[in-house]
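Suppose you are handed a protein chain with no further information: no name, no annotation, nothing but its sequence. What can you learn? This example shows the usual starting point.
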Amino acid sequence: MAAARGCGVAIPATNRRRLASEPGAGRGTRRRAEGVIVNRMTAAGLDDRKLATILFADLVGSTALAGRLDPETLRTIMMDYFDLMAVTIESSGGTVEKFIGDAVMAVFGVPTTHEDDARRALLAARDILARLAVFNDRLAQDFDVRLQVRIGVNTGEVIASRDASRREALVAGEVVNLAARLEQHAGPGEILVAADTAAAVGPLAVLGPRRDLAVKGKAGTIPAYPLLDVLPDEPEATRRFDLPFVGRARELATLDLALDRVVTDGTAGTVLMQGDPGIGKTRVLSEWLGRAGNAAGPPRAAVVRCRNYAEDGSLRPLQDLLAQLAGPDGAVNALAVSASPYAEAYAYVVERLEAAASSRPLVVVIDDCHWASTMLIEVLDRLAEDLADVPLLIVCAARREIAELFPSFGRGAVNFTSLELIGLGADDMMRLAAAFDDITAHDATALAMHVDRAEGNPLHLEQLLSAARDGSSPAELPPSVRALISARIDVLGETARLVLDGAAIIGREFSTADVTRLIEMPGGEPVVAAELRTLARRHLLDAVRRPTGTTHRFASGLIHDAVYQAMTKGRRADLHLLYVEQLSDRGATDAEIGGQLEQAYRCRAELGSSSAGLAAVRTSAAERLVAAGVTALRRVDIPWALNLFGRAVAVASPDDPQWPRATLHHGQALLAAGRRADALAAWRDARESALRHGHAALAAHADLLAAPIDPDAPCPADVARRHLTRFENEGDDLGIARARLAIAEESNGAGQHRAAVAELRAALPSAVRAGSDIERANALGALGFALWWGPQPADDAIAECVALLRDHAAGHTAVRATLGYPLAVLYAMAGDQARADAMVGAVRESSEALGHPEGTVFVPLLTAAVATLGDRGDVADAALVDADRAARRLASPYLRRAVDRALVRRHLDVGRADLAVAALADHTAAGPPSDRADLEGLAARVAAASDDAARAARHAAAAVAVAAATDSPVALATAHLDVAHVHRLLGDPVRARVAADAAFTAYMRKGHLVGAGWAAALRA
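A reasonable first move is to predict its three-dimensional structure. Written in structure tokens, the prediction is:
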């Protein structure tokens, strides 16, 4: 068996042949990639996954009709009926795919997608009934016969040939079957509409009550709605104009300036406003017209639209304009525009516009000018020249392709303004999203995700939020957005489509050379480069200048998604595997290669494939993703590690040997992200799977990682001692580091910090050799903690921490965070407040870079500790408020206890005993000795503040006893200081002085100069 270069996949030749012949494999040049035969397909051999609307119409009672009529008469009637159906369907932009007996199947969206195919299908269905009624009047008169039809309409994804000449199978898919089932459930003269069609048409479809239908071949029921009417396609009906208007100050100012010129100079002007579909052109103009004007008052305004298919004549917008200017009681000779010779019609329009602008300035807005006929554009150009001395402002709003359709439009006008609308800023988009109904309960994270995906386009944001509200997957493209983008793509030539296909496989950004190699375009790189420039002019792509040269990027992620989803899954898989060859040849990262293999596997698996070759692709994908995740984990890039390991676990099978390793690492990333329960579940699964595959060492790692958070596990240190010998015998540095860390944590927890220091100094080299930032950072953080609390004098502890930071922090953000914490406190203890503050800043910066949730608690806790040692109570109070808020948000009992102890001590130090009592109420003296001594001392001070001498004495004695059992001078000094406070509160100055002396001695032994100052002040 031969393995693909650098990918570690070996697939038998028989399986290669089998995979190549699976559903979705295309026609064309056969190549081997990742051990699998794949195909580079020419455009003529390609199929697409398209969003289409299917209409089924069937005659009711045709058998009885055949029994009544002579065959010749019946044939004549049926031929006329079929002609009526074909004309009606095609006039709405549909295609009659086939006649089945007396049933008609039509498709809207194939071979060419329109952005409103679902509405076109409903218009056609409505018009069929209307035209059939007229046809029936003639039949009734001639033959005493009336025809009745029932219609079903459904929208969804179909497979369609990219080659319009291939008529043998225009569309295929479940959407076709469901449309036929809906037709069978419709009553005579009724149109039944599927839920997906209703969603695609939105408020323009007037529907009757929902019906839940039991449909053959479908489990349960499916919803359907009778169609009552189809409303005109006006922006006010389809867009959320009730949402607040945000941003666009520049655009409004530009329109105001253009109008001011017209008013001041008394001359005509033209504004061409361009922007992507959905960017907000209509909304900007609506808002501007509502506020436009000056001291002389608002201008007279008329707004008309061009339409996107043949329901209008070429000059229909001018007819609408003149009708508006005439008003409800006026008269306009529409025939003068629609039927007269061009010269007469033009003269009439000029006359009416001059008359309308004679009393006050006139603003004419023509929306959707990209749909305008060539004749209309010529008329508008002439009007700007011939009415130059009339106070008339013509504002044309259009998509950016108008520059390619009519490149000279408006350029001859005296006052011409080109205004381009770009995407809204992130803040404006967030305000827009927050105002959208009650979407996802004000979940800021979800809103931010949709805002990011919409990339400044208000319509895209609106549709994404609507889809989310209706329960669609976040990764799913809303049908309306997909149709809008697909309509722009469908008009491209075959070469451009092939280039887009290759680019979509590579990713959001790509180079000309990569696309050329992937699709092997005849003519090579110059042809691809030319197509990319054309696509950039059509604003589907953007050119991006990089230090290494110019690349291209999809103009939006949604365009990238739409192109990718339009390819068949078989073609996607083929191209993904071919691109793996390129990535392997140039030494790409595991993440890049693993992502391509993952997508190839998913596409094939979704087609129902289960071949051995596909299993090898899956295995290789999981291996690559795990390797990339390990790299991210070593860098402590937790979000990226979570993403990679989650994908590896999802793509791999539990029967794969790499699955336990992926799950083990996934657990680490989950724990680092604060998801303890999920991490424990992952490690339990990893251990079980590892043992099943005979990976005893991997199972030992799972045991060791799970022990600290598993309530059913033995003591973590005992688990570590049980496995340490195995790790040492096998030279497993990562296992050695983890085991010694667990043993050291037991010593630190027991207050035996000297023993912990020795264990951690031995663990650190193993962590470094293992190349794991997490174990290195954990070892250094624990070592810093032991040096902080242990018997080593503060100056010596600082010197060792500084040396460790110098040797290990470069390039290791987590080390700066974990070791910087104890070092900041040590500096503050020694009275070096400047260095302490600088280290707090470094820890904050590192923690924010890591993005660990616990950092939102630990950083303010550190800030409070250093501020307290520096006698800055206001800073400490503010930081503790932040820590308390973050701890409550994370709902971690451990973090809550740490914050509560700090709050209680702060309350007591400043005389807020009542607040200290409330904060201490839910806590018991449990946990590590240092924590227990702390709680006992605090409980003693609270009792003394309440004049409960007996309870205070009991807790004070316990605090000293617990602290004395450790080797921590800090814990012992703190306990003695708490006892001194207790005796002072109880009015016993002699015992208070003795306790303060003991605290002073312990603080000085540690070199805790600030603490020694506290003890001296209390003693005095």
